[in-house]
Write a structure and sequence with these properties.
The complex is a heterodimer.
Chain A lengths: L17 H9 L4 H27 L20 H13 L7 H19 L6 H21 L15 H27 L4 H16 L2 H15 L8 H26 L3 H9 L4 H16 L1 H14 L11 H7 L11 H31 L7
Helix pairs in contact in A: 3-6, 3-13, 4-5, 6-7, 6-9, 6-12, 6-13, 7-9, 8-9, 9-11, 9-12, 10-11, 12-14, 13-14
Chain B lengths: L3 E12 L2 E12 L3 E5 L6 H8 L7 E6 L2 E2 L4 H10 E4 L11 H11 L5 H14 L15 H13 L5 E5 L7 H16 L3 E5 L3 H7 L2 E6 L2 E6 L1 H6 L4 H10 L3
Parallel strand pairs in B: 3-8, 3-9, 6-7, 7-8
Antiparallel strand pairs in B: 1-2, 1-4, 4-5, 9-10
Chain lengths: 370, 246
């Protein structure tokens, strides 16, 4: 009788592993690959040089007015951002009261960061802080008029403050509303289903600008005399309803991906509709559509710039407003302002994007990922 | 024979215009093991799915543990915990660990405490011989292991009746035995079982009665010895000649 011994493993050939192996395989595998690699490196170097030259080498970093930014070869005019920074963040919020906005930003961060970290416990208390206590706290702090705080009208709010208020309200409201709408659209109750379909199709079928116009111009016409509520609030409601219609369709996509067997297994275990939805269906459906949900969040965040159309000055709006300041009129003011606004938006959106990738990996349960 | 735990009389069901179950009469005694076989599309899965209300019959009567199955909700929840079900495709919840799969119903339906439910689940996982996989996710297990988890999950509700809907049909041959072994053990402990299966060896070993269905009707039923050695109906003979090893 012969016995079989497996062949012992041998080391891989040289030039197929490590950096050299990687570069050979990915960058210089064929003549065309080599050509493309050289060409691409050239482009990267060129772009880096242009950007670096504009943002650093030829840029101005200090100065009190336009004269600082009038060199023969002028790059970015950063003093403009520095001088207007307070305006960009707070709008016309009174300078003496800006600590209140800072406090709201800060406490929001303090509540949000542990919530976003799966390893930190006390999620229930944390969630209560964020959704129960924080909105009331932020509302009182920002509007004032009570507790000895000076009242600040929302028409004086602006800049990043308005962007964040609109975006955060939209994001927080659209997810639960969207989930309810998506469930309603798949409901077996015909009236509930019809209402949800109607809502979704109407809000998804019109541009956000129309919704905002309706909210700020048309709505007051329909309200009785003397009944009026704040323009910002009307915009918030408009944005929240609009984005919840989009969210509903994203969530519905996830709901449809859940196999029938999951519902049957839940029913066989004696779980009713709401328990099945909450414990079995939604956790799986929402995990599947995290990219879509975050996509909607990011879209919403950038759509907040449209509130300019009804006379609210978000970050981009207020940057543009300050282009008209004659004491900062230079050829580079516009581009510097736009680059700054773009940078701030990009930071927020990129952070959301990275967090969504982190969450996808964290929630993954198959054996290929850890 | 004592009072039957399941009594089905003159039961009919249609999918749209398709008459899928025709005048089904079936009594199941406590502790009885019934194997249901038949060609695909014969209505055997639909029959056992009617017993735990995954499908709703339209005519006739089904009484389970003294409860007549109709549309009332309370009924549904009680059926859920009296009758456990194991599916062909396992249908484990992929976002929960094995332990969470098993404790779900005890905690959320029966109102047990977490500790109590986990103790129960671990005992049952021991019984299906996978106590060391409790913290894993279903996708990390083999098919045979997943199906044994599904059995443990159903047993966690402490059901008096277990329904098996082709529990080994989706498994690789080498894993069928480990699942059947668990089912045989369960049968020997006196559980009332209805199994839709093509495992004729299992039928011979544990069944008290074998039922053959075709075209939505019960064509023949008999004790396994007589059923296999001496089938009466032509249709049964043809079926057996196709599924039994030559």
């Amino acid at each position: 009788m012969t016995s079989w011994t497996p062949t012992p493993p041998r080391p891989a050939p040289a030039n197929t592993v490590g950096f050299v192996g990687w570069a050979r395989e990915n960058l210089f595998a064929t003549k065309l690959d080599t050509l493309l690699t050289v060409f691409a490196i050239g482009i990267i170097l060129y772009i880096t040089e242009v950007v670096f030259g504009w943002a650093i080498l030829n840029a101005s970093f200090s100065g009190d007015d336009r004269t600082a930014c009038l060199k023969p070869v002028q790059g970015a005019c950063w003093p403009f951002i520095e001088a207007k920074f307070g305006q960009f963040i707070y709008g016309r919020y009174p300078e003496a009261e800006r600590w209140r906005v800072d406090l709201v930003f800060l406490s929001g961060l303090v509540g949000l960061i542990p919530m976003l970290m799966p390893s930190v416990g006390h999620k229930r208390a944390n969630l209560f802080f964020l959704l129960g206590f924080y909105p009331i706290f932020a509302f009182i702090m920002l509007t004032g008029g009570v507790l000895g705080l000076e009242a600040v009208d929302t028409t004086d709010w602006g800049g990043l403050l308005v962007t964040l208020v609109v975006a955060v309200t939209g994001i927080v409201a659209s997810l639960p509303l969207g989930i309810l709408l998506a469930l309603g659209r798949r409901s077996e109750l015909p009236i509930v289903r019809a209402l949800c379909i109607g809502f979704i199709e109407i809000f998804r079928g019109v541009p956000l600008i129309t919704v905002l116009f309706m909210a700020s111009v048309m709505l007051p016409l329909f309200l009785p005399d003397g009944v009026n509520f704040d323009k910002l609030v009307r915009c918030l409601i408009g944005v929240a309803l609009f984005s919840s219609a989009y969210m509903a369709e994203v969530v519905r996509g996830g709901l449809q991906a859940i196999p029938k067997g999951q519902y049957e297994a839940a029913a066989a275990l004696g779980l009713g509709y709401w328990k099945t939805t909450r414990l079995i269906v939604l956790p799986q459906a929402l995990k599947l559509v995290i990219p879509g949900i975050v996509n909607t969040f990011i879209g919403l965040f950038k759509d907040t710039t449209l509130v300019l159309i009804v006379g609210l000055f978000d970050l981009l709006g207020i940057v543009q407003l300050h282009f008209t300041d004659a004491s900062w009129a230079t050829p580079e003011t516009h581009i510097t302002g736009y680059v700054f606004a773009a940078g701030v938006f990009w930071l927020f959106c990129f952070a959301m994007s990275r967090y969504s990738i982190f969450m996808e990996n964290h929630l993954s349960t198959d054996r290929t990922s850890s | 024979m004592s009072d039957p735990v399941i009594r089905i009389s003159k039961m009919n069901k249609w999918f749209g215009n398709f008459h899928v179950l025709r005048d089904i009469d079936l009594d199941v005694a406590a502790g009885e093991k019934i194997v249901i076989c038949g060609p695909s599309g014969s209505g055997k899965s639909t029959l056992i799915r009617c017993i735990n209300r995954l499908e709703i019959h339209q005519q006739g009567e089904i009484v389970v543990e003294g409860m007549t199955l109709d549309g009332s909700l309370k009924n549904l929840e009680e059926i859920g915990s009296n009758v456990g079900m194991v599916f062909q495709q396992f249908n484990l919840f992929p976002h929960m660990t094995v332990l969470e799969n098993c404790t779900l119903s005890p905690i959320w339906v029966q109102g047990k405490s977490q500790a109590e439910a986990e103790k129960l689940a671990r005992e049952l996982l021991e019984r299906v011989r996978i106590p060391d996989q409790a913290e894993k996710y279903p996708e990390q297990l083999s098919g045979g292991q997943q199906q044994r988890v599904a059995i443990a999950r159903a047993l966690c509700m402490n059901p008096r009746i277990m329904l098996f809907d082709e529990p080994t049909s989706a498994l690789d041959p080498e894993m069928i035995k480990e699942v059947l072994d668990v089912m045989v053990e369960l049968a020997n402990e006196g559980m009332t079982m209805l199994c839709v299966t093509h495992e004729m060896g299992f039928a011979r070993q544990v069944a008290d009665r074998v039922i053959f269905m075709d075209e939505g009707e019960i064509v023949e039923e008999n004790a396994p010895e007589a059923f296999f050695s001496n089938p009466e109906n032509e249709r049964t003979k043809l079926f057996l000649s196709q599924v039994l090893p030559h």
